[in-house]
Each structure stands twice: as structure tokens, then as C-alpha cells.
Design a protein that fits this description.
The chain is α/β, with parallel strands linked by helices and 602 residues long. The chain has two domains: 317 residues, Up-down Bundle (ABC transporter transmembrane region fold); 155 residues, P-loop containing nucleotide triphosphate hydrolases (Rossmann fold, 3-Layer(aba) Sandwich), CATH 3.40.50.300. It is 62% helix and 10% strand. It is built from 22 helices and ten strands. A six-stranded mixed beta sheet has the order 6-7-8-3-9-10. The chain has a four-stranded antiparallel beta sheet with strand order 2-1-4-5, with helices on one face. A hairpin with a 2-residue loop joins strand 9 and strand 10. The chain starts with 9 loop residues before the first helix and ends with a helix.
Length: 602
């Protein structure tokens, strides 16, 4: 797997980025690049026309004066025309390639087989920088075009200077420090920014907490607004102080580099005018070309700095994300079975979250028979949700294997496996779409299938909610949208449940505490319906026929007692497995927890 600590090499990453832009807009890229080069030539020749004009005036050569004046006019007009044409072509290229790049980054992050990059701090810091950069990555092509144009201008200008005396080429050597500091500065500053990425994310989180609606009621009732502001300021200062120090330090070195070039430029003028006793035209050429050399170097160095700071850095991060996404599916060569005949077996599975040392699951071995309703219970932190994540292939086990009808789940294509999953989770997402689409995204090919959406809504017991919405399935959810309707947390949860029931024939149905906001009686009734459907007794969705396994995760023991098999987790291990009757008869941990909860309801 690609390590999050090592970005790919610079040049291959840059080449991949160039190739992606070419694939998106090949014709526009070539035209925009060509125009940038062509526009550089007449601009760089202006110093030559000024020399000829001065020599013509000094030598009273009328024909040379006319030729130089015509050259100046043509160069100026051509420079303006080509610059305007180039800018408009580049703008069109940028607009089109922006969509392609942003879509590519969004698609990569959304389709990565694992959710590790959403939960690991080092991944989050890296992706936070990439998200900031993706909105300017399109500039890098324009910057590359401009850099090549400035380099061509520099080459022409140096050639003109050397036509006066070869020693004037030393001006370029005196400009090398400016190039070095410009390429060095962005990397130093970017490293400091990334090291402070966690603090910067904290500052943003505190700002959003203080200014957005979800936390608004509690911020006001607790009176922590001033504290949030103070802590946000403190977090931002802790992030910005080292960044500012790095910027000041790099700016000091950059100033010294430019001072070296400025001294060399003055020396060149003195050398030509006094040492060589050159013609007025030659002195004027050095003045014009030298000042332009300064401007061209500044522009070139600025573009190189941008390329170094954004393109090179952004290209490496994007290449890392591409490699990371690809590394998770390199061995996906096992087909997903059309139905389950044996079931799912966890074979000595242990798991620790990347970047941590604590085992969340420790040497877990358990059989989940085909066609069974399996309840997973245990106290908070026992590993229930982690077990669900492994079954959904959000993560790979640290050690051990998960076998699906004897085949290794880790070798099955994640997308194909998840296409045969369905489920609802406690930490569900609120899709602020039309109500029907909020449910329908659970089975994207049937997004607009009214009958399928209605069936899913009925299974989830959300038909009463849908009937109360102003426009039914067409109601826009979310109060921030035109005609949008706000619904309660429990109602959002019912819609999430319905979304989890859009797929009619999943191999694995996962219900990870999806009814926590509902009362115990409602949850019990819903789970009874799900269990009946899983056994082929209910609503026409015969889970037993395809060997569907239904996983119920709940803290309510009155609900899980209906399961065919109950798995009890404690301290990252499986401590008991059996039916409700068997576990109650054994008098173990399950029986103790069941008794405590039953007494609380009396």
C-alpha cells in the first residue's frame, strides 16, 4: 500500500499531471502553449529595435530610423494581439480543465476502497492541503505556458546582450541565486503549513462551530461563544506563527539574492558605457535589455515559485492519492458470489487503526451462517462498529482473513462487493435532496423508480413521514434551499433506514444502530420486520433464498433476542456466541447485561 509518509517523485508526478490536462483538452492545450511561445518573440525584440533606432538617430541614417520605427510598431502590435489571443485561449482552456481536475479529485476521494483517508490525521492533513490546492491546480498549466514564454524571452534577451559583449552573459549567473531561492521558498513554507495542518483544521472547526446552525442552540445555551472565539484565535496563532517565521526567513534570503542581481546589472551598464566605450545604441540596448532581463527574471522566478509551490506539490499529492486508491485494489481477483451458500467466516481477525497501537479487534474467529440474522452486542468500545467496517471492506484486517463462502473478501473488488451490500448506520449522512432522491440514492440505478422508493419507505416504517411532507417524494429537504423543509433527527434517521432498504437482494444487510433516535417499541417492531424479511417470511424480499446475512448492532437487548445468532464482544474479543436462549442459560456476560437492562425497563 502507498505510504502516506512518502510522496511520489516530483518529475513523474508532474508528467502525470501534464498528461491528465492533455487528455482532458488536447487541442486547447497545444494551441495555448504555442501562442505563449509565439507571443514571447516580438516582445523580446523591442530592445533590438530601440538600439537600431538610437544608432540611426546618432548616425543620421534615415533608412535605419524608419526600419527601427516599423519594427517597434510591428512588435508592439503583435505583442498586444498575441497576448490578448493567448489570454483568451488560456482562459478557455483553464475553465474546461478546471472541471476535469476537480471532478477527478472528487471522484478519487469518493471511490477510494477504504475510508482510512477520512479517519487518519496524517491523511486528513495531506488531503486538506490538496483540497485547498485543487482550486488552483488549473493555474499550473497557464503557469507552465507563461514560464516557457518567459524563458524564451530570456534566451532572446541574453542573445542580444551577448551581441554587445560575451561577458554580459554573466548577468544570468548573477540571477541564479534568485532562481534558487524562488524554488526553495515554497517548499519550506509548504512543509511548515503541513506540520501545522492539524492546528489549522482545529481553528476551522472552532470557527464553523461558532458560526453555523447545527451547534447554534448549544453554543448559546452554554454561553461558550467567547471561549470558542478565543480558542479559535489561539489555534490560528499557533498555526500561523511558524508559517510567518518561515516566510520572513525565506523572504530575507530572497532579498539578498535580488541584491546580487541588482549590483551585477549596474555593473554591466558601467562596463558597456565606460569600459567598452560602446555606441549610444549599444548602451541603450543594455539599459533596455537589462531592465527587461530583470522583469523577465522576476516573472520567470515567480512562475517557477508557483510551479514549485502549487504544481509540483499539488501534483505529488494528487499522484499519491491516485497511487493510494489503486493500491487498495491491486489484488482484487476473486469474484463476488451471486448468492451465499456457506456464509461469512472471520478467521483469527485482528485489527488496529493505522497509526495506532491498540487492537480494536483481537483474534476474532466466528461463523456467520448464510441466511442468518446475526446480532452483535457489547459495551461501547468493544469493537462492534469496527467489525461492521471490516465486513463492508472499509478496512482490511491487520491480521487474519474474512472468508465469504470460502473466498478471501480482501481479494474481491470493493465496488462489486459493496454493490451487494445494503445498510443503515447511526452516523448516517443527511442528503439534502428531494425526499424521494434522498431514499433513492441507496440504489442509484433505481433513483427515479417511484415503486422501489415507496417499497423502501414502507419497509423502514417511514411512510407516515413521507405522507406528511408538503410535496411528498418531491419535497426538497433542508431549510437552506428554496422551499426546503426541515425534518427532525428521528425523521432523518427513518429516511436513512429507507435508503438502506433500496436494494432488494443484498448478500449482506448491515444495521449498525440505525434506530438510536427511535423509541424501543418502534425499533423492536422495525427489527422484527427486517428479521422476517431476511428469513423469507415478510414483504416478498426473500433473504433466505440468496443466503442473505443480516447484521443487527443494537444496545437494546429486547431487540437482539430475536436474532438467530448473537455475538457478544468485550475488550476487542468475542466472549460468547449463541442464541438468546443458549446465552441466557449459560449465565454469562450476555445474561448479566440483559438482566440489568430488563430491570431498568420495569
Amino acid at each position: 500500500m502507498s505510504s502516506p509518509d512518502d510522496l511520489p517523485p516530483a518529475l513523474p508526478a508532474m508528467w502525470r499531471m501534464l498528461r491528465r490536462g492533455y487528455q482532458a483538452e488536447p487541442r486547447l492545450l497545444v494551441v495555448a502553449f504555442g501562442l505563449s511561445l509565439v507571443a514571447a518573440v516580438p516582445d523580446a525584440l523591442i530592445a533590438l529595435w530601440l538600439k537600431l533606432l538610437a544608432d540611426g538617430v546618432a548616425g543620421d541614417d534615415r533608412r535605419l530610423v524608419v526600419a527601427a520605427a516599423l519594427g517597434l510598431g510591428v512588435s508592439t502590435s503583435a505583442t498586444w494581439f498575441l497576448r490578448v489571443t493567448s489570454d483568451r485561449t488560456q482562459r478557455r482552456f483553464r475553465d474546461r480543465v478546471t472541471i476535469a481536475l476537480e471532478s477527478h479529485v472528487a471522484r478519487l476521494q469518493a471511490s477510494v476502497a477504504s475510508i482510512e483517508h477520512h479517519e487518519r490525521p496524517d491523511h486528513l492533513d495531506r488531503l486538506a492541503v490538496l483540497r485547498d490546492q485543487v482550486f488552483v491546480l488549473d493555474h499550473m498549466y497557464l503557469s507552465l505556458f507563461s514560464t516557457c514564454g518567459w524563458v524564451l524571452r530570456l534566451a532572446v534577451t541574453i542573445g542580444l546582450l551577448m551581441s554587445i559583449h560575451p561577458a554580459l552573459a554573466l548577468l544570468v549567473l548573477c540571477a541564479v541565486p534568485t532562481v534558487l531561492t524562488s524554488t526553495w521558498r515554497p517548499g519550506v513554507e509548504r512543509d511548515v503549513e503541513e506540520r501545522g495542518g492539524q492546528t489549522n483544521r482545529l481553528a476551522r472547526h472552532l470557527f464553523l462551530t461558532a458560526t453555523t446552525a447545527p451547534a447554534g442552540k448549544e453554543v448559546r445555551i452554554t454561553g461558550i461563544g467567547d471561549r470558542l472565539v478565543a480558542e479559535r484565535r489561539d489555534a490560528w496563532e499557533r498555526y500561523y506563527r511558524p508559517v510567518a517565521a518561515a516566510r520572513w526567513g525565506s523572504a530575507a534570503w530572497h532579498t539578498v539574492a535580488w541584491a546580487v542581481f541588482a549590483g551585477a546589472y549596474v555593473g554591466a551598464i558601467v562596463f558597456v558605457s565606460s569600459g567598452l566605450e560602446a555606441s549610444p545604441g549599444a548602451v541603450l540596448l543594455v539599459l533596455a535589455a537589462g531592465s527587461r532581463l530583470s522583469a523577465y527574471l522576476g516573472a520567470t522566478v515567480g512562475e517557477i515559485g508557483f510551479l514549485r509551490g502549487v504544481w509540483l506539490d499539488g501534483s505529488k499529492r494528487l499522484a499519491w492519492l491516485e497511487d493510494y486508491a489503486a493500491s487498495l485494489i491491486v489484488n482484487a481477483d476473486e469474484p463476488v458470489p451471486p448468492r451465499l451458500t456457506e456464509g461469512i467466516r472471520l478467521d483469527r481477525v485482528s485489527f488496529r487503526y493505522p497509526g495506532t497501537d491498540r487492537l480494536v479487534l483481537d483474534d476474532v474467529s466466528v461463523e456467520l451462517p448464510a441466511g442468518a440474522v446475526v446480532a452483535v452486542v457489547g459495551e461501547n468500545g468493544a469493537g462492534k462498529s469496527t467489525l461492521v467496517k471490516l465486513l463492508c471492506r472499509y478496512y482490511q484486517p491487520t491480521t487474519g482473513r474474512i472468508l465469504v463462502d470460502g473466498a478471501d473478501l480482501g481479494r474481491m473488488p470493493p465496488d462489486e462487493w459493496r454493490a451487494r451490500l445494503a445498510g443503515a448506520f447511526q452516523d448516517f449522512f443527511r442528503f439534502e435532496l428531494q425526499a424521494g432522491h434522498t431514499v433513492g440514492v441507496g440504489d442509484l440505478p433505481r433513483l427515479d423508480d417511484q415503486s422501489a422508493v415507496t417499497n423502501a419507505v414502507v419497509r423502514a416504517g417511514a411512510d407516515d413521514l413521507m405522507a406528511r411532507l408538503p410535496a411528498g417524494h418531491l419535497t426538497q429537504l433542508g431549510p437552506t434551499w428554496p422551499d426546503g423543509v426541515e425534518v427532525s433527527f428521528g425523521q432523518w434517521q427513518k429516511l436513512a433506514l429507507a435508503r438502506g432498504f433500496m436494494r432488494d437482494q443484498p448478500l449482506l444487510l448491515v444495521l449498525d444502530e440505525p434506530t438510536a433516535a427511535l423509541d424501543a417499541e418502534t425499533e423492536h417492531a422495525l427489527f422484527e420486520r427486517y428479521a422476517a424479511a431476511a428469513r423469507g417470511e415478510g414483504d416478498g424480499s426473500d433473504g433466505a433464498a440468496e443466503g442473505r446475512i443480516t447484521i443487527l448492532v443494537s444496545h437494546r437487548f429486547s431487540t437482539v433476542r430475536m436474532a438467530d445468532l448473537i455475538v457478544v464482544l468485550d475488550g476487542a474479543r468475542v466472549v460468547e456466541v449463541g442464541t438468546h436462549s443458549e446465552l441466557m442459560a449459560s449465565g454469562g456476560q450476555y445474561a448479566e447485561l440483559y438482566g440489568i437492562q430488563a430491570a431498568a425497563y420495569r
